[in-house]
Write a structure and sequence with these properties.
The chain is an alpha+beta fold. It is 32% helix and 33% strand.
């Protein structure tokens, strides 16, 4: 995934259940990807800004992992 081609459009975090939803949009063709996952209590610590950044990085990692799996 080339970072300049993808834009994080939204991050939603359920603080009670520790569920995260990240919506990424491809800037050229408008493809939308929604990544949903659960974060650990350790990952939830810190300021809201640092939490959002960690969640975005985790989502990018999931997208890269999927891309590597699909690239045959």
């Amino acid at each position: 995934m080339r970072l300049e081609l993808w834009q994080i459009d939204g991050v939603t975090i359920d603080l009670e259940d520790r569920d995260a939803n990240v919506r990424a949009i491809h800037r050229i063709d408008g493809t939308e990807i929604i990544v949903r996952f659960r974060v650990t209590e350790k990952q939830m610590k810190g300021s809201p800004a640092s939490l959002r950044q960690r969640i975005e990085l985790l989502a990018a990692d999931r997208i890269l992992s999927l891309a590597a799996f699909l690239d045959v």
